[in-house]
Amino acid sequence: MASRLTTSNRAGWGFALPGFGLIALFIILPFFFAFALSLTNQRLVSPNPTEYVGLQNYGDLLGLAVIELEPERLDDGSIDRDADGNARYPRVRSITRSDDFPQYSGMREWFRWQSGDNARVVIASDVVFMKALVNTLTFVAVVAPVQAALALVLALLINQKLRGINVFRTIYFMPVVVSIVVVSLLWRFIYDGNDGLLNNLLAGLTFGAFEGRDWLGDPSTALGAIMAMSIWQAVGFHMVIWLAGLQTISPTLYEAAEIEGAGRWQTFRYVTWPGLRNTAVLILIVITMQAFALFAQIDVMTNGGPLDSTQTLVFQAVERGYGRQDISGGATISVILFVLVLTISLIQRWLTREKA
Amino acid sequence: MAHVSLKNVRKSFGATDVIKGVDIEVEDGEFVVFVGPSGCGKSTLLRMIAGLEDITSGTLEIDGKVVNEVPPKERGIAMVFQSYAIFPHMSVRENVAFGLTIDGTPRAEKQRKVQEAARILQMEHLLDRRPSQLSGGQRQRVAIGRAIVRDPKVFLFDEPLSNLDAALRMDMRMEIGKLHQSLDASMIYVTHDQVEAMTLADKIVVLKDGQVMQVGSPMELYHNPANLFVAGFLGAPSMNFIEVQTRDADADAGTAQVANAALEPIRVATAGRPIRAGGNAVLGLRPQYLRPSATPEAGMLHGTVELTERLGAETVVEVALRDGSRVIAALGEDRVLDRGTEIGLEFDPARAHLFPAE
Ligand SMILES: Nc1ncnc2c1ncn2[C@@H]1O[C@H](COP(=O)(O)OP(=O)(O)OP(=O)(O)O)[C@@H](O)[C@H]1O
Ligand SMILES: [Mg+2]
């Protein structure tokens, strides 16, 4: 029996309203706000009125140029070299602060490479942002495939009829339900440079030959350490999605393959993998989006350091918007991130589309 | 062609015994049909022959070799499933060639065998389609094609036609019959459609609760059912069973005289079954062998018409007998019989079957 309550349109809207209202207030509205704010010079607290500044925020973040520096010459025309024999170049500052090059003003050196005698220097309006961008892309490029593949392997392993298999499912899924902040704190101890678990473990395995290192304090290992920990934390979640996909494949297809004499690998190649196609697309997109949103681990474990080696886009957005009270700058980063993720997702959709 | 032999084969899933000691011989080139009610273990038995289920005990031989522990591929069998089990992401051609691809068969030979199978099944025009673009009958053809290309010694079919509609089922049934004649391979076919069983089989195996009830040619089973179950299972409409009392039993002549309140005393063959004088027994009469007598009092069974179904060439009449039981008569003509009219039915006692009461 349908009561008046369940058939009434007004009641339906009434029930939907609180949830919808909250989503509108905290997700949809800020989304459009971010677009609007990115075109202004709004600050968190400021006595000055907000002004419309057009695309200046975007220019301040994305400004990029390559300049070529000729080596300094001695009076006889030969290249001026230092004690190690390296050529001396004029300082980048001499260009970025010069009135002759107003287009480079305020930019700083990001990195340089040698081209013949000359040095080519990439200068950026916002070097920290550029580092954050590269770190984020690296993080996505490593985490997405590794996490997806690892999750698939785990799903294949636990998709068996074995006694006690649920214990394994639970264990692999457990990190997912623990707050990422707690997980990050724990891993900070694991990675600790003095007496961390990882150092002890490696030292034990190598009979003391391994000398401990400060995983999060070393620019060459910090990002890798965060990647490893992030993969570990969310792999169980994707394993469950893979598992759901695996269980939609009809068992008769496996039997048909068995009768035709397909081995393990052939069965995977001809039955399992094609049957997981849609799941694969879903997982790829979800992992990519999650990886782009990397924040909590950075905030808890490294704060973007050392030497900006673990800066990420979301961390920068928060750091600017609230840390430096530069709301419009933070909003601009959010918009750039949005466009980036959207573009990559669309490309992924297109690459994995069903070919007729 | 191959000889398949099951000796005292059993299967248990945990504590439940599903197949309880089965002996079946399938001769070279024979078409054997397993029939039985749902859940009697037909599929399980077939899957054991295929190698998809372990054999709990007993031996399975193919061509004289015990294959209990041999993987499916090396048994020389091919199987066609009820749900087709064709790979949705492959074209028809790739599906048919699947076994050859797995074996690493050279391209040219693969091509030739696929063409050959497609020709036999008249589906050359379908080879480049995807399964989603095929009808049910066409899908089943693809599945059969995949079985054919491997040149198996034994074909196994598990209710291959039960997902098809009636007309298509008849077509495909005939095709499978022709296929058997042209391929000359042994075939084992599971169904619970008795028309399929009767028309296709060289030999029918009737199963019930994991046990063989009777094995024999379709006509043997139809005319000489070994027990009540087989008698009731084969034939449509199914055989009438009438409770009767045995007046006397002549063990030497192998006959007994039986009667009841609605049945005139008649003498029927006991076919060696243990029928005792003065006891109860069950008389089996096929509806097709009953016909109305000239007058209601003339026949051997007496009752009134309850219901008639006119099918054109046949009229099915339900008769309420005087003792309160009911029988069905299938008359080979179109005939109008009003509800409630008195009717007498007669039959040739040689066509009647007498079974001990259960
Ligand atoms: N994997 C299994 N585990 C436990 N019991 C099973 C399993 N497979 C089949 N059975 C049982 O074995 C019995 C026989 O099953 P089977 O599938 O062989 O029946 P069937 O004769 O093919 O029936 P149908 O005509 O409905 O297909 C059934 O009672 C079924 O419940
Ligand atoms: Mg079955």
Relevant CATH superfamily of the largest domain in chain B: P-loop containing nucleotide triphosphate hydrolases
Q: What is the N-to-C succession of helices and strands of chain A?
A: HHHEHEEHHHHHHHHHHH
Order of helices and strands of chain B: EEEHEEEHHHHEHEHEEHHEEEEEEEEEE
Largest sheet of chain A: 3 strands, antiparallel
- Count of discrete structural domains of chain B: 2
Largest interface: A-B, 18 and 24 residues
Family (chain B): Belongs to the ABC transporter superfamily.
Protein name (chain B): sn-glycerol-3-phosphate ABC transporter ATP-binding protein UgpC
Keywords (chain B): ATP-binding, Nucleotide-binding, Transport
Domain ABC transporter (chain B): 4-234
What is the strand and helix layout of this fold?
The complex is a heterodimer of chains A (356) and B (358).
Chain A: H1 4-7, H2 9-37, H3 56-62, E1 64-69, H4 93-96, E2 108-115, E3 118-124, H5 127-158, H6 165-177, H7 180-190, H8 197-205, H9 222-246, H10 251-259, H11 264-275, H12 277-292, H13 296-301, H14 313-323, H15 327-351
Helix pairs in contact in A: 2-15, 5-9, 5-12, 6-9, 9-12, 10-11, 12-15, 14-15
Chain B: E1 4-13, E2 16-26, E3 31-35, H1 42-50, E4 57-62, E5 65-66, E6 77-80, H2 92-96, H3 98-103, H4 107-120, H5 136-148, E7 154-158, H6 166-183, E8 186-190, H7 194-200, E9 203-208, E10 211-216, H8 218-223, H9 228-233, E11 240-250, E12 255-260, E13 263-269, E14 280-285, E15 291-292, E16 301-310, E17 315-321, E18 326-331, E19 342-346, E20 353-356
Parallel strand pairs in B: 3-8, 3-9, 6-7, 7-8
Antiparallel strand pairs in B: 1-2, 1-4, 4-5, 9-10, 11-12, 11-14, 12-13, 14-20, 15-19, 16-17, 16-19, 17-18
Bound molecules: adenosine-5'-triphosphate and magnesium ion.
Write a structural description.
The complex is a heterodimer of chains A (356) and B (358). Chain A has helices at 4-7, 9-37, 56-62, 93-96, 127-158, 165-177, 180-190, 197-205, 222-246, 251-259, 264-275, 277-292, 296-301, 313-323, 327-351, and strands at residues 64-69, 108-115, 118-124. Chain A is mainly α. Chain A has 2 domains: 64-124; 128-351, MetI-like fold (Orthogonal Bundle). Chain A has a 3-stranded antiparallel beta sheet, with helices on one face. In chain A, a hairpin with a 2-residue loop joins β2 and β3 (118-124). The longest helix of chain A has 32 residues, at 127-158. Chain A starts with a helix and ends in a 5-residue tail after the last helix. Chain B is an alpha+beta fold and 358 residues long. Chain B folds into 2 domains: 4-233, P-loop containing nucleotide triphosphate hydrolases (Rossmann fold), CATH 3.40.50; 240-356, Beta Barrel (OB fold (Dihydrolipoamide Acetyltransferase, E2P)), CATH 2.40.50.140. Chain B has 9 helices and 20 strands. Chain B has helices at 42-50, 92-96, 98-103, 107-120, 136-148, 166-183, 194-200, 218-223, 228-233; strands spanning 4-13, 16-26, 31-35, 57-62, 65-66, 77-80, 154-158, 186-190, 203-208, 211-216, 240-250, 255-260, 263-269, 280-285, 291-292, 301-310, 315-321, 326-331, 342-346, 353-356. In chain B, the strands form 4 sheets. A 6-stranded mixed beta sheet of chain B has the order 6-7-8-3-9-10, with helices on both faces. Chain B is elongated and about 75 Å long. The two termini of chain B are 42 Å apart. The mean pLDDT of chain B is 91. Chain A binds chain B through residues 250, 252-253, 255-263, 266, 270-271, 274-275, 277, and chain B through 50-52, 71-74, 77-79, 81, 83, 85-90, 98-99, 102-103, 146, 150. The complex binds adenosine-5'-triphosphate and magnesium ion.
